[in-house]
Write the structure tokens for this entry.
Amino acid sequence: MCGEIINMINKLKNLVVVPFSLALATGGGYQGVDLTIQGVFGIITGLACWFTRLALILVVVYIIIFGIKFMMAQGNPTKYEEAKKSFTWGLVGVLVILGTYTIIATIANALGANYSLIPLNCSGY
Amino acid sequence: MKSMKKISLLFIITLSSFFILSNSAIAAIVIQGPNISPNTLQAGKENTLNYSFTLTGNRDDARNTCNKPTESNEIYWELKVGRAGSPWKQVTNAFIPFTDFPLQNPVKGTFRFTPKQGDTSESFQVVLFCVTADEFGNKLPSRQFSGSGAVTVDVVGQTQGAAKISFDVLQPQPGASGVREVNPGQSVAMSFKLNVTEDTSDINSKCGQVSFIKWVVAMFPATQNDNFTDNIIRDGQIDTVDFGTGKTFSLDFQKTVAALNQDFVIKARLFCSGSTVLTTSQGIRFNAGGAGAGGGTGGGGCDTPGQPKCKPGETKTYSFNIPNPLKGGASDFTSLVKIIAQWIFNLAIPIAVAMIVYSGILFLTAAGEPAKVTKAKEVLKYAVIGLAIILIGSGFVTLIQSILELGGTTPPPAGGPPPGPGLPPGPGPAGPLYGCTDKGYCVQVQDPNNVPSSYTEVSGDASCNNACSSSGPTGDVGSLCKKDRDCQTDFKCKDALCQRANGNFGNEPCNSGRNCGFGNVCDKNLVIISDGRRLGTCVAK
């Protein structure tokens, strides 16, 4: 009895669902996105923007990790030295990541190139 | 199987009886009206109209209608306007709490409404909705449960035909046969005359409230329909207010036009700021490559425009042209390479950013391990070297050239220094000479002081330096520049244009809004020719 009712409800469901899925399948022309050679620039810029954001997240994560390393050293000289070394090089990394635009602008100016463009405009990506 | 049928039958009966019961329980809220007064609308202007309608029904009726758990104790009404085939638009609306029912007075008020251009009547309708409040407490009309009949109001006072456009081609004049003859694909120096007559109120009635109207002069094959998008010869706009109660604007201009490969027509058309057409001029027909008509005047091959048909055995000349498929406008190999190089340069900059950031990440994750730190240093070093090579780019060519010349004097740029306006054609460098027409077009001439009446416009050519510059000396406001040092003292180079330190003043040239001072924008329609470039003008916002 109960099974029959469920069966009936399922049939009703199918009746309702099928026309909708048909409409979805037949709607629109070709599948996919228009891609042009000019679009490649957008893709590369988007990847670079994504990568920069990832780096900024990593900066935060690694600074926390360095802090934990200092704590775990517990005054042990070898471990402390190791933590200090990682932290120093980590700071260099942070400087390089945050100073990307400065590096590019410095090189451009040093070479006297006409440099009015911003290397990466991430507002649209 | 039998039992299933029984159950389903029972199911349906219960359901339908439930619906009948619940339907009969709702004493509906009934709309009477709406009444709209006055019962005519004036075309082309804003009308103030009064509306009134009554809603009958008591508090319980309202409560029974909007009784879903999500619905709040209010109903929403909306007065809409529309006509067949287009979506209805809301004119005015309000919420009424259930507690106000039964309503003692009709709902009334006023609204302002401008009929759409071309409408002869407008329809109004009142609809009622239940109200749902979202999680922020905003009230939203959620479910329409009733609607009145449509009330139609006539629109009167349409004005007709004030827009007038007269258009003529002064040069070239029609030949003896009365038709203008050109060779297919050939560049023809043309001179145009355009008169636009309009009336601000007529524009408002046809276009709605727009601040300007557009005009377009375009050419298209004679065998095809009017096409004002593909081959635009020139276009522009006129501020609506400038027309007042009727005024004519005249414009004479010259342009070198490449003839189509078949007979074509040049027409002018007035648009509302969108795509609505106000009026179209008569067409000026050109024969290009059609059968030659009229008597031969000697010279040239047979069967070309204006020449008799070929006789057997005579040499027949065919002319054709291959259109440039490159949209970037590259006309020779060097500019093609330049476009490709620019594209690769654009790609390279984000990659450089990514590489520097990558080396930063390597430093970060190295945790002091010498091998990893070394790798990070290498990545950074080569990223910087690569970037330097990219930025030097074409500079390498000049570098190698200068090395090969071993300290000799720097060669003058190709073509020699461009002559300024009015410079006599002396025994100077053997480059082309440029002059400026009275219309501000830069042209290539024999004598810059004596510009002939027929010429080829080369305003887009950067080598047409200073010939049409509104500001004489090099490095003045509006001059072409690559760096600040190309401009005069205190001026800056921005968007390849010399500008004042805090942006240019009004009536001074600009390439983009960035060149203009505070409160000014760059109007590209007010063309200033400077250093062979067509620049815009800084104007107050």
